[in-house]
Specification:
The protein is α+β, with helices and mostly antiparallel strands. The protein is about 25% helix and about 25% strand. It is built from 2 helices and 4 strands, in the order H-E-E-E-H-E. It has a 4-stranded mixed sheet, covered by helices on one side. The longest helix has 10 residues.
């Protein structure tokens, strides 16, 4: 199992979402290209991938997003 690696902006994005009133579960240690955060906001759930302004999805993250049958992951950048 490949464990996650956090982008430098991971904590900043997590904090901003919480400051907006969202529930946030950090999935960063799950690995295997699972998005970084599970976010609950306005009675909806979102998968969120945290990236720096120039950050790009890895091939595995792109594959996960294409194969996921739920709401597609959101990429948030600083």
């Amino acid at each position: 199992m490949r464990h996650g690696r956090r982008d430098l902006t991971h904590a900043e994005i997590r904090k901003e979402l919480r400051d907006l009133g969202a529930s946030v579960v950090d999935l960063g240690d799950v690995g295997n290209d699972i998005p970084d955060l599970l976010v609950g906001f306005c009675d909806r759930d979102f998968l969120v991938e945290a990236k720096s302004a120039k950050g790009e999805l890895s091939d595995g993250q792109s594959k996960f997003a294409k194969e996921w049958r739920g709401q597609p992951p959101i990429v948030l950048k600083t």
